[in-house]
Fold this protein.
Amino acid sequence: MTVEKLITDHIDIWSSALQTRSTAGRGSNGKIDLYGIKKLRELILELAVRGKLVPQDSNDEPASELLKRIAAEKAELVKQGKIKKQKPLPEISEDEKPFELPVGWECARLGNTVAIIRGITFPANEKHREPSEGKIACLRTANIQDNIEWDDLLYVSKSFVKRSEQFAEKGDIVMSMANSRELVGKVAYIYDIPTGEATFGGFLSVIRPYGVNASYLMSVLRSPNIKSILIDSSSQTTNIANISLEKLNPLVISVPPIGEQNRIVSKLEELMSLCDQLEQQSLTSLDAHQQLVETLLATLTDSQNAEELAENWARISQHFDALFTTEASIDALKQTILQLAVMGKLVPQDPNDEPASELLKRIEQEKAQLVKEGKIKKHPPVEPLGEPALLPRSWLNIVVQDFADIRLGSTPDRSEKKYWNGDIPWVSSGEVANEVILDTKEKITPEGFKNSSTSMIPTGSLLMAIIGQGKTRGQTAILGIDACTNQNVAAFVFNQVLVEPEYVWIWAKSKYLSHRGDGHGGAQPALNGKKVRSFIFPLAPIKEQQRIVSEVKRLNDICDTLQSRLQSAQQTQLHLADALTDAALN
């Protein structure tokens, strides 16, 4: 089977094998990893370096002759003092040959076919962002992407370039020698040097081919088998993996005749272009699908009345299985359910319900009594924070401090061992992650509790992280236990008979992005107690709150079922892509 046929016959598998990444990226589907197309690219590279991509030609000069010429050229360059003489590398044993080679191919040590040159070193205070007299552009690991990125360079004194071979040349392959495990060994090709002259830093090496087609060698270094060998041979210190010249020079690579190298490179360009088209079509299709989903879901939140909402929901229901087929579309559905819930559009109003205005009076009476008893503080009125929603007549826009007492915790002195490892649960902001909290990573002692300003928060209270890295700020959780918190968590304490805790949680999750945006500050924006007390809150009649919670649970169960089916289907597609790859190689 030709590779083209392998691609076209199984195009549905390559296109539909998707994985969800944790980090965001391009477009609305930045969290989608096109796993099938990635596997296809890897397969094409692996077929190329095993001699299975293009047919062999018996008229080609065998690779053994090419290797003799390379050895002679390197010996001459050593004689002229242009490159250093390297230590002889050991002969390649049969065990080191990773697969059977076609006739005319040879295995060779990388160091015998290229010059490998380590980059320059210089003090940290010698890095400059702008070019100037006597300075030279210096590539670093950040510049080594799929191609060299020349728009974010450092400049260093030319005096740090000790040998002429440390000047970058067109046709060089630059390798990242120190990086994360995922990125170590990454290579990029120098097609041109837009700065005129350039060098490269100590975490990089230049691989300078002699007689081998540099594009073919790039394919070798990017092939899954070689990448795996490089990563496994690297030494690991904290989060950085290092590849040494001692590991790189003896690396065993497959060398075809030069004529076949050129044919392989031509075929690779053709097939990788096909992969590019397939990738672009997949991304365009995913983005179009997500836009359609979001447009249709927006008709629900924009519905002016119950009849229009029912009509819009019926339209979506007809195409449910076709619409909610990705993680992003199911997430959008979940978010829409939350928004409808707090807009009063998820369940019908019941004229027999006690209206929110009467409910608020009861809440205010109770709060006034608690203030009188000194159990909570009285706060002055606040300016509402957020956009007031257009609500049903039986609802009210209030602010959080109208129904909840907001309490910030604290951290007992870490240097006092007697304050820690007790039995009082203590919640940090990192644990506030859209879950019900039933236990905590750390616990404090009664002495630690007494000697800090934290307070005991009752079960059922809502917690909100008001500061934290990444997604943390604005995230919420429900307490499933009595616990105290640190100073980076705001606890909503309220009468759970008058206000349903899970309804408050639904509101908080529906406003996550809005609440995050209300955080201000320097490097780590933060919310504070006053801002949290000022958030606008849609108070619904208590019976309607309970109906909303019940309906959100029902709909979330449907979403979870969709998600489970999707994950199962995705796993099947991933296994199919892996099986197809293995079958093609073996």
